[in-house]
């Protein structure tokens, strides 16, 4: 039996400066419905985390993933609770991807970053 390969995902987006406090507050009470939508779509390990860099208004999201990425992202996008969450949070963000219109759109809202180094330490 093989062990599933966990792919680390790191994404980047701009956060509108005037929305930082509200955005942080929303994530302090992260919607349980959205959390439940992530579980069956192979978001694994320690779950998701976000980090904010105020000088450039950049927000990162990181998570470990295993499975069929495109299929699972589509499944998450079809979840009604996730769609409601995106309606609240998308207006607080600015995509770095030209012609992106929002989460769940044809052009990805968050920019996925290339992993260039990884050390698995015991």
From TrEMBL:
Q: Which Pfam families match?
A: rhaM
Signal peptide residues are none
Q: Which domain of life is it from?
A: Eukaryota
Ranges in a coiled coil: none
Q: Which GO terms describe its molecular function?
A: racemase and epimerase activity, acting on carbohydrates and derivatives
Which SUPFAM superfamilies does the record cross-reference, listed alphabetically?
Dimeric alpha+beta barrel (SSF54909)
Its name, as the record gives it, is Rhamnose mutarotase
